[in-house]
Each structure stands twice: as structure tokens, then as C-alpha cells.
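Lab notes, practical 5.
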Amino acid sequence: MISYHSMGMKCANCGKGIMYGHNVSHSKRRTRKIFKPNLHVSRIMINGRAMRVKLCTKCLRMFKNAAVLDTVKEKVEATLEAPQVTA
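Output from the prediction step:
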């Protein structure tokens, strides 16, 4: 069983993850910055089981629409069935 902790900072549905950029001050000095997605752990039913999945807020809002819910479940099932490669 794959827990939601093994997924890291990525949305299980859309794959939105960490982005890198710069903080730019008034004097145009650039310092490194990490932009993290707004992820929430939510429970969804997949194959009759309640699974905990990390989803971004945009995907959580899409869950209100029942038609989108089926496509989200299919994507999550596909990622759960894919073999995990560790280096």
C-alpha cells in the first residue's frame, strides 16, 4: 500500500510541484526562492477503499463536479499501479 507521505510535494491529480525562482528586491537584487504548491491531504474513494491523497486546491475545487471526479480517480489509480523507481 502506498501512503500519501511517499508522494512528496506533488499533486496526485495534476502533478503540480515545486517551482524555483527569485525574490527580487527594490534594488533588483535576486535571492533564490522555492514556490511550493498549496497541497491538502484528502480522502477519496478508489475501488471501494478510502485513500489519502495529496491534492492542490485547484483539484480539490474540481472534486465538487462529479464528472471530473471519475477522471481524477483514473489518474490516481494509474499512478498507484505504476512501479515505483528508487535510485
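Observations recorded by the TA: The radius of gyration is 16 Å. The helical segments are 57-62, 66-81.
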